[in-house]
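Re: beginner question about structure tokens

> Can someone show what the tokenized structure looks like for a real chain? I only ever see the sequence side.

Sure, here's an example I had lying around. Input first:
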Amino acid sequence: METLENLKKELNNEYETTRSFIANFPSDKNNFKPHDKSMQIMPLATHIVEIFSWPEMIFKTDKLDFAAGDYKPTFLDTKKELVEKMESDFIKGKNALENATEEDLDKRWTMNNGDVVLMDFNKYEAIRHALNQITHHRAQLGVYYRMNDIPLPGSYGPSADTGF
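And the corresponding structure tokens:
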């Protein structure tokens, strides 16, 4: 199987899992955060869903530079907006993978803060890193849910709330 086919399958699997998490998003707790250093729940969930469009950004650019303002986080207020953002960003990421070639994955891509290179990847590695970020931040969201007695869907198997 080709690398792109694997990435498409993984993006789709992460989307399906994330969709079940977002379906349980608590509309009345947008500002909840478990610690002063933690993100609030709505910006965390927003960040998770916006990562689905990162394959498009990675294929269209050679770098993301925080100091240059290349990353502009999205600010949402409602669960409806969150669902809509997830749907549109998933389509962007999926389309980017559909239109890419295996050779595109070998091109370089960096994440910078001005002159400081934070990460230096080929585009395959950058997309894999983005997929890992979805998993990482979704696990954080799961902790927020648990702290608020919100049922957790299974991710890679059943959760204590979904049984076996």
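Each token stands for a local structural state, so reading them left to right follows the chain. The chain has one domain: 3-26+38-147.
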